[in-house]
């Protein structure tokens, strides 16, 4: 059913609390990875990607904090998220946004595969015509 205004506010606060908690955890893990890098160890591909994602999230956090710190500016957050969809750190994404991004990526990959298949078929026809 419908949620009350109080319940919506509580859900939003929980969402942001969980986002900050995940970001803090990612930051601690990233700090350990940087420490390992400084001591000459090599990171795996997965660790490198996680470190880059965490650094990007920390840089995205700066403009996001302006909305949190300035009074009543959080009401403008949906407008700015519509204009700049990747402004929030990845730990603050909802499941629906994550699924939407995955669908867009999948559609792009399918379109690319279709284009490549058509190109290869066309090249094969040309080669067949040239040799035949």
TrEMBL record:
It comes from the Eukaryota. InterPro entries: LETM1-like_RBD, LETM1/MDM38-like. GO terms for molecular function: ribosome binding. The chain crosses the membrane at residues 58-81. The keyword Flavoprotein does not apply. Keywords: Membrane, Mitochondrion, Mitochondrion inner membrane, Transmembrane, Transmembrane helix. The gene is Letm1_1. GO terms for biological process: intracellular monoatomic cation homeostasis. Pfam families: LETM1_RBD. It is found in: Mitochondrion inner membrane. This is LETM1 protein. One of its GO terms (cellular component) is mitochondrial inner membrane. It is a single-pass membrane protein. Residues 43-128 form the Letm1 RBD domain.
